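User: Hey, quick favor. My workstation is busy. Could you predict this chain's structure for me?
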Amino acid sequence: MNHSIYSADRSTHLKIVVVALVAGIAVAGFGISARTSSEDYTQTARVIKAGKPVAVTSSGTSMVR
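Assistant: No problem, here it is.
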């Protein structure tokens, strides 16, 4: 058994590349299927209007200017 990647033969390198590609495709497929499973998810824009300015002091009370 060869314990170094540098001195490994061609078939060992090919096996490593194939396993890495299969694992990458599996992770990508799982991510895509998990993301598109909820069809009813929609984003809506919410408008937040600014109120009166507030200054917070160190005592914990607020003061409206």
